[in-house]
């Protein structure tokens, strides 16, 4: 069984090594179902445009987290990003969003 995340590794330049021009994002249906699961009333609806907007925000958030984690790892002279690098950048990332 292959690792589904192996193709999504980010190089030190912050560029997706598998496909430099291909953006990987969240599916609109997945985002809609996730958000809908938190609605308190059944009458609450989510428009398609709102789901696309949230999906784009998630894509940007994840990409920014990956880039900042990579920069943190590089500043510590590490050639691999670990969870500790992500944990170090997370507070500022959350404040920026």
UniProtKB/TrEMBL annotation:
One GO term (biological process): kinetochore assembly
Top-level division of the source organism's lineage: Eukaryota
Places the protein is found: Nucleus
Keyword field: DNA damage, DNA repair, DNA-binding, Nucleus
Primary localisation category: nucleus
InterPro entries: CENP-X, Histone-fold
GO molecular function, one term: protein heterodimerization activity
GO cellular component: FANCM-MHF complex; Fanconi anaemia nuclear complex
Residues in coiled coil: none
Signal peptide bounds: none
Database matches in SUPFAM superfamilies: Histone-fold
Assembly mode: Heterodimer with CENPX, sometimes called MHF; this interaction stabilizes both partners. MHF heterodimers can assemble to form tetrameric structures. MHF also coassemble with CENPT-CENPW heterodimers at centromeres to form the tetrameric CENP-T-W-S-X complex. Forms a discrete complex with FANCM and CENPX, called FANCM-MHF; this interaction, probably mediated by direct binding between CENPS and FANCM, leads to synergistic activation of double-stranded DNA binding and strongly stimulates FANCM-mediated DNA remodeling.
UniProt record similarity statement: Belongs to the CENP-X/MHF2 family.
UniProt protein name: Centromere protein X
Organism: Notothenia coriiceps (black rockcod)
């Amino acid at each position: 069984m292959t690792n589904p995340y192996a193709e999504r590794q980010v190089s030190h330049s912050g560029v997706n090594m598998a496909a430099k021009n291909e953006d990987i994002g969240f599916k609109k249906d997945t985002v809609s179902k996730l958000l809908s699961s938190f609605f308190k009333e059944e009458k609450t609806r989510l428009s398609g445009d709102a789901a696309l907007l949230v999906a784009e925000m998630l894509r940007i958030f994840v990409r920014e987290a990956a880039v900042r984690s990579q920069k943190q790892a590089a500043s510590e002279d590490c050639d691999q990003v670990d969870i500790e690098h992500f944990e170090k950048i997370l507070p500022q990332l959350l404040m920026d969003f």
